[in-house]
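Worked Example 4.2. Consider the chain below.
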Amino acid sequence: MTMKTMRKEEVAMRLAKPGIVIRHRQDGVVERWTYVGWIPWKRVKAGLTVEEAMGRLIQKGWQTGRVTRVPSEATLRRWEEEGVAEAQDGCRVEIDGYCPHGWPSWLIVAGLV
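Applying the procedure from the previous section yields the following C-alpha cells:
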C-alpha cells in the first residue's frame, strides 16, 4: 500500500463496514465517526504499522472506496427533516433504512434514528 508523505496527524485511510466508519491517522490513532465529528476510538496495536493494521481490517471485510464523504451535521439534520437520506455508499434510502447493498443510512450510523 503506497502512501504519500503526510504530517503525523493526517489521515492515512478511511475504512468502513455497515454502521461504522473509521480512519487511521499516521500517528497510530484510530478515530470513529459520530454525528459530532471524528473522535479517538483506539490505537494501532504495538508492533504493527498503520498499513499492516489497515490490511488486517480489509481482510476482515472492512471496505475502502465504497463510502461516500461523511456528511456534516447540517446535512444530517436536513435529511432528518426531509425523511430521505444517503446510505454510507451513496444510495438514497429512508432515514431509518438500508440500501440494497446492505449499507445503513448515515442517520443510523450517527445514532440519530
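The first strand starts at residue 11 and ends at 17. The helical segments are 50-59, 73-82, 106-109. Compare this with Example 4.1 before moving on.
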